[in-house]
Every structure is written in structure tokens, then in C-alpha cells.
Amino acid sequence: MKNLREIMTDEVEVCNPEDNVYEAAVKMKNNDCGAIPICEGDQLLGIITDRDIVVRGVAEKKPNSTQVTDLMTENLLTAGADMSVGEAAKMMAEKQIRRLPVVDGSRLIGMVSLGDLATHTSTESEAGYALSEISEHHHYHH
């Protein structure tokens, strides 16, 4: 069975704690993604999602100049690079998350999304399970 190191995206666009929400949104647009990790150097602090921007930012009438750290999700569920794809899919389904930061200690080394799981034929059943479990519930964390 494959592990996350084999399927993760290892060149991840990040924001630093001083970046604002507008800068994060532009990075999401330019990279066609819905989440940007927040890192100080290579240390993962949190993640900001398009949903965070809408719910914690726009709906609360916060300006685009708001720092990403004010809206980011902290205390993330993460995985190590040697975690199996099946374990990751199960964890993502159980915890209702679509994106999983891959870390070495607290150092961000990659990201895995449900899309990454779905593009690998040996993981179609795990990805399908995770997607069906997440799609049935409305509690998205990151």
C-alpha cells in the first residue's frame, strides 16, 4: 500500500503570519486551491481555507487587511509522510476533513487532499469512502 510521501504535493504555497486575508485569497485563486497553510519559516502554525475567509471574515465584516492568523484554523490534524494512504483516507473521513497537512515534527513537508487520494487508482475505494463520509456531513474543518 502506498504512503503519503508517494502521493503528497510537496511544493505547497504558504502564507506567513503577517500576510492578510486578501493575499491568502489571491494565492488560493492563483493556485486553484481552497486552503493555504500558515507557516513561520517551515513550522506549521495553522491553515486558512476559503470557508474560513467567508465564515470568519466576510460574514463577520472583517476587512481584507485582516491578518490570516486571525481567521486561520489552529490545532490541525496532521499526518506523517509514512502514513499509509488507507489510514489517511480513514482519518480524513472520520474527522471530516478534505485536506491533510503532512509534517515532519511541526515542519510542513507536504499536503494531501481528497483529490490526491482519488487520482491514485489503488486508493479509489479509500478516497470514495472518505469523500462519501465527508459529503454526508456538514462539519468541514480544513
UniProtKB/TrEMBL annotation:
Residue span(s) of domain CBS: 8-66, 72-127
Keyword annotations of the record: CBS domain
Signal peptide limits: none
InterPro entries assigned: CBS_dom, CBS_dom_sf, Diverse_CBS-Domain
SUPFAM superfamilies reported for this sequence: CBS-domain pair
Record-linked PROSITE patterns: CBS
Xref: PANTHER family: CBS DOMAIN-CONTAINING PROTEIN, CBS DOMAIN-CONTAINING PROTEIN CBSX3, MITOCHONDRIAL
Name of protein: CBS domain-containing protein
Taxonomic placement: Bacteria, Bacillati, Bacillota, Bacilli, Bacillales
